[in-house]
Amino acid sequence: MNYRLSPSDLTFLYDGCKHCFVLKVKHRIFQPSIPLPAIFTRIAALQKEFYSGKRTESICPGPPPGIVRYGEKPVRSKTIAFSGCESTCDLSGRFDIVAELDDRSYAVFDFKTGSPNDEKAEMYGRQLHAYALALEHPADGALALSPISSLGLIYFTPDSCAHPGPLRQVLEGNMQWIEVRRDDAAFMGFLESVVRLLDGPIPAMEPEQCDWCAYRRRTSQPEGTATVPGGAGLGSPACPTCGGPMQRRSGKYGEFWSCMNYPDCKGTRNVSASS
Question: For residue 83, is it left (φ>0), alpha (ψ between -120 and 50) or beta?
Fold first, then answer.
């Protein structure tokens, strides 16, 4: 089986809840979206547009010298295989900006709004490594840029508010460069651990740290059932083959439970056996 991994999912979703991470990547069952992050997406979009074509030195002190050439472009890597793993993966997403440096190499930058810290930098480093790997080893027809010599985060931390005129408000703040040291060996080891997690049974729900797991635990059937939003409904049984969630279907011989990971998994259950 090949898993398509989004670089952004390798940050908060992976660290926040392994159960929800596996449901999304392997079974295409998504956590409900929330509107709050949309404002951060909008801020990043404005930054990408404003800095396009500008020198990196004009953004803030610290980035290697060059010119911002690419903004929010899709990337996709070749298939990545690991020794001893049954499955493979590829990386597919969109970077914020890429600068062409004066030495003819490239740098991948990500805009962030908030206060930087070492823990966040390490987590976001996975995202930047994924973009770099996809750009240097692209799938057929995907954007190819090489070599990627620098990775970094550009933080905007609002610290003041101005009101220049009617109907206008301006947030001002520091721009700070956080370099991310590239370590391909460590990142490939991390990717291998992700594939092994996806190949295994679905991790237990984490209601103590995941609000979505907590909600589903409170509204679910007893242990041993997979509570899934949407078509599977509450209390659907776990697949006997892969342990994933199932949905009720109608077939030639009546109703039955079918694995939601079909056609990769063809596990089924009789409706009567799970009642």
Answer: beta
Q: How far apart are alpha carbons 53 and 245 in whole angstroms?
A: 48
In whole angstroms, what separates CA 269 from the centre of its chain? 32
Residue 273: its pLDDT value, please?
Answer: 54
Give me the helices (H) in the chain, please. Answer: 12-16, 18-27, 38-51, 118-136, 184-199, 211-218, 271-274
Distance between CA atoms of residues 199 and 195, nearest Å: 6
Contacts 24+ apart (CB under 8 A), 20-23: 20/210, 20/212, 20/213, 21/197, 22/197, 22/198, 22/202, 22/203, 23/202, 23/228, 23/245
- Contact call for residues 126 and 93 (beta carbons, < 8 A): no
How large is the average pLDDT for residues 26-49? 81
Q: What is the mean pLDDT of the chain?
A: 88
Cβ neighbours for 267, distance < 8 A, ≥ 6 positions apart = 239, 240, 241, 242, 244, 246, 258, 259
Residue 249 has which token pair? 């279907």
Enter the pTM of the model: 0.79
Q: Is residue 189 scored above 80 in pLDDT?
A: yes
Domains along the chain with CATH numbers:
2-199 (3.90.320), 222-274 (no CATH)
pLDDT given at position 231? 40
Beta pairing class for 254-259 and 88-94: unpaired
Instruction: Report, as an integer, the average pLDDT of 185-189.
Output: 97
Length of the chain: 275
